[in-house]
Design a protein that fits this description.
It is a single chain. The protein is an all-alpha fold. The protein is built from five helices and no strands. The chain has a domain of 55 residues: 434 Repressor (Amino-terminal Domain), CATH 1.10.260. It is globular, with a radius of gyration of 14 Å.
């Protein structure tokens, strides 16, 4: 019997705002300065939330949203802020402990 695998999609497992916030927080911690990594995480959350909702709330086109959050490039910070707000999330800062 052959084993069948399917691609894991984290967006299918982000069901609540708390799970979405925790995923973004973990991504921010793991990104190590990689803005495209954060963009990909925001894209995952946007897909879980519903792209139509995010497009409408962020005031961005669907195409620019998909391109900006693909993880293949780094979106500008204005786009990040619009998407975070559209997702009902907030970014926060804390003192880095080295």
């Amino acid at each position: 019997m052959a084993t069948t695998t399917t691609r894991y999609d984290v967006a299918e497992h982000l069901r609540t705002p708390e799970e979405m916030a925790a995923y973004l927080e973990a991504s921010l911690e793991e990104a190590n300065g990689d803005a495209a990594f954060i963009a990909k995480a925001l894209g995952d959350i946007a897909r879980a939330r519903g792209m139509t909702h995010v497009v409408r709330e962020a005031g961005l086109s669907r195409e620019s949203l998909y391109k900006g959050l693909s993880g293949e490039r780094s979106p500008d910070f204005e786009t990040v802020l619009k998407v975070v707000a559209a997702l009902g999330l907030r970014l926060h800062a804390e003192v880095a402990h080295t």
